[in-house]
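Below is a filled-in request sheet from our internal design queue. Each sheet records the structural input a requester submitted and the sequence that came back. We keep these sheets so that new team members can see what a complete request looks like end to end.

REQUESTER: design group, bay 2
PRIORITY: normal
MODE: inverse folding
CHAIN LENGTH: 622
BACKBONE (tokenized):
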């Protein structure tokens, strides 16, 4: 199938759109009428521009309100069609997409509709052109591709065929099996779009929430597989309407479009998953100045971590507890220093264990994910890396070489007595980003790694809504939460301002016994986020928890959730410099992230933020 994208899918003037589409690797494009009408360039100039960019225009669309118009308006409709035929020829395409009529004045007379398309077919054929009829899910009389196909079949004209729009078929729930009835030679064009499952009218749903394949919930793989079985091997064109994309970069959206189609078509092939399998999180790296590194080290000690190793040449310290590796980088030069200058003490890199880093880099290259490299010293390993959220890095650690990397590049520090708090591994980490970026980063993870995505949810911050969605490996060795908010006052938005952009907002550590861990953390001086008594009163009523257990949870600020699979206990530290915080979790079969408790946590963090330093809470780490 041929990868294609409609110009309406990306932002900016038509000249910018076409350049971004070509740079993303597309060779085929649909010209959307509104883009053409708004362009200061003439139609012949736009046609030449596409040819210069190596783009082939495969369709012009949409031609609206055509079929079944009253007799008084019919002549004007055909005059308009002839003018659009002129445009097609100047653009260098032979196909015009006709969307089903939405005009209140249109007639439902099937005979009239068939006659209209026969005449349009004759006029198109006289100029060597074709037309394809598309059923809009909100059409006046035709809103189902089965009806559109029936009309095309009755018209029985060589220049009149069918255009399918996956959204208009899947959103209203039209059976995918119905595609088998469509003749391959009469299927002229296919448009593709994903979308989240929403309970709203099809027009609003379509105009604001379409997204790239892999970003939503529609069964696009099954849909395209059914098309493939009909023998269709023509154009597969992205037609996306989304408010986030309209606010984003044309180049980034076009690249996302290409990534999504690459991954969609890969899923049709009966071969092993070509995405990178993550074997786990090997380390999380913080950048910091000398001063903030000392403050961060104090916080880590109060969490039960010990500084166990130091890099043989650099100001880089390895902190350990259980199977957790945290790296604090104070090196005066290089990537970490630059990141610290922009963001302050923060997570600048994540190390992922993979079987084959070279294959992972190749996969990233195929998806146009930029890589990163910097000079390494004598005897140091050159660890492949990609650019990630907020300009951070994702390192690929070869699983078989990971122990030797630590042995070779780090030397042991003198042992210092410390209290292990019972933290065993990294459970997950969250990344917050601009609202307009979230779908792009979701696609980044879903197409690059062998992960699955959870349903997106909305969480009530005291001053706005936060959208949250998780991606996670099948064995749950890697879990990542993505958060964004369109509100300018939520904790996510405040984080973006304090942090200086998108990045890791919190890291979650797993323990086997959260009550024991919480008690040790208190003894170590860790300040946990205070949770109101009202929460525990409701918790007892909701889950029937024992009063003694509730009292202990309240004393230790432990939150709780459960589902049909198990239970989830968790607590939160106070934030470090308003940038990031830590969570401790204990899971028993539970597979979520305590979403029901998030509003409680957000409200508690907001209260803490508004307290004056030196009053009820100490200012350390505020």
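RETURNED SEQUENCE:
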């Amino acid at each position: 199938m041929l990868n294609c994208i409609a110009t309406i899918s990306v932002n900016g003037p038509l000249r910018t759109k076409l350049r971004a589409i070509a740079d993303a690797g597309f060779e085929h494009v649909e010209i959307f009428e509104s883009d053409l009408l708004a362009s200061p360039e003439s139609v012949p100039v736009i046609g030449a521009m596409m040819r210069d960019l190596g783009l082939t225009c495969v369709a012009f669309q949409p031609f609206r309100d055509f079929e079944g118009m009253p007799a008084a308006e019919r002549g004007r409709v055909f005059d308009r069609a002839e003018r659009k035929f002129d445009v097609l020829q100047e653009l260098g395409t032979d196909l015009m997409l006709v969307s089903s009529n939405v005009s209140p004045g249109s007639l439902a007379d099937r005979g009239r509709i068939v006659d209209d398309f026969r005449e349009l077919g004759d006029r198109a054929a006289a100029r060597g052109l074709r037309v394809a009829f598309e059923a809009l899910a909100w059409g006046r009389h035709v809103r189902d591709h089965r009806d559109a196909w029936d009309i095309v079949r009755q018209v029985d004209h060589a220049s009149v065929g069918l255009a399918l729009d996956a959204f208009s078929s899947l959103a209203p729930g039209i059976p995918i099996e119905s595609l088998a009835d469509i003749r391959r030679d009469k299927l002229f064009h296919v448009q593709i779009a994903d979308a989240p499952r929403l309970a709203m009218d099809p027009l609003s749903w379509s105009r604001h929430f379409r997204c790239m394949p892999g970003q939503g919930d529609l069964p696009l793989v099954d849909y395209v597989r059914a098309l493939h079985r009909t023998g269709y091997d023509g154009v597969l064109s992205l037609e996306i309407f989304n408010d986030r994309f309209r606010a984003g970069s044309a180049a980034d959206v076009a690249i996302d479009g290409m990534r999504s189609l690459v991954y969609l078509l890969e899923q049709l092939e009966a071969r092993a998953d070509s995405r990178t399998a993550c074997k786990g999180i090997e380390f999380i790296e913080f950048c910091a100045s000398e001063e903030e590194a000392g403050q961060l080290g104090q916080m880590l000690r109060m969490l039960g971590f010990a500084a166990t190793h130091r890099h043989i040449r650099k100001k880089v310290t390895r902190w350990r507890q259980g199977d957790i590796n945290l790296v604090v980088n104070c090196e005066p030069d290089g990537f970490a220093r630059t990141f610290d200058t922009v963001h302050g003490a923060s997570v600048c890199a994540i190390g992922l264990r993979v079987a084959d880093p070279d294959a992972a880099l190749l996969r990233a290259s195929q998806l146009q994910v930029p890589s990163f490299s910097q000079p390494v010293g004598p005897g140091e390993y050159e660890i492949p890396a990609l650019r990630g959220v907020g300009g951070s890095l994702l390192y690929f650690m070869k699983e078989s070489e990971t122990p030797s990397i630590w042995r070779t590049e780090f030397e042991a520090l003198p042992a210092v007595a410390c209290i292990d708090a019972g933290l065993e591994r990294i459970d997950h980490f969250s990344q917050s980003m601009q609202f307009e970026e979230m779908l792009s980063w979701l696609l980044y993870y879903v197409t690059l790694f062998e992960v699955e995505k959870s349903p997106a949810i909305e969480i009530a911050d005291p001053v706005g809504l936060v959208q949250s969605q998780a991606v996670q490996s099948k064995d749950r060795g890697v879990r990542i939460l993505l958060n964004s908010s369109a509100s300018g006052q939520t904790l996510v938005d405040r984080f973006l301002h304090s942090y200086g952009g998108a990045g890791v907002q919190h890291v979650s550590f797993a323990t086997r016994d959260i009550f024991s861990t919480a008690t040790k953390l208190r003894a170590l001086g860790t300040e946990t986020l205070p949770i109101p008594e009202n929460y525990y009163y409701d918790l007892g009523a909701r889950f029937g928890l024992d009063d003694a257990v509730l009292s202990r949870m309240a004393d230790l600020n432990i939150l709780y959730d459960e589902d049909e699979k198990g239970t989830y206990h968790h607590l939160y530290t106070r934030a470090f410099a308003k940038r990031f915080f830590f969570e401790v979790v204990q899971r028993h079969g539970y597979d979520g992230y305590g979403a029901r408790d998030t509003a409680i946590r957000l409200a508690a963090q907001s209260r803490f933020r508004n307290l004056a330093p030196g009053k009820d809470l100490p200012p350390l780490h505020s």
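SHEET NOTES:
- The domain at 278-412 is CATH 3.10.180.10 (2,3-Dihydroxybiphenyl 1,2-Dioxygenase; domain 1).
- Residues 610-622 have pLDDT under 50 and may be disordered.
FILED BY: M.R.
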